[in-house]
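Blinded run. Sample ID left blank on purpose so nobody reads anything into the name before looking at the predicted structure. Input follows.
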Amino acid sequence: LIAEVEPLKLIEPVKPMEPVKPSSINISAGDNGYLNINLKIHKGQKETLNRILQETILK
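Blinded prediction complete.
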């Protein structure tokens, strides 16, 4: 019995985010079963924000 195997896909390793000061994150559970996430980062950290959005919400 011969099985076809799909080629492996290359994936990028997960890179830890470097905390930027001043920054903060608040996570709370809402009554509706959803998590509320409040990020506070400096406006100069636009790339950090874009990366957060790409890796979470925009996937």
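Unblinding after everyone has recorded impressions. The chain is about 15% helix and 20% strand.
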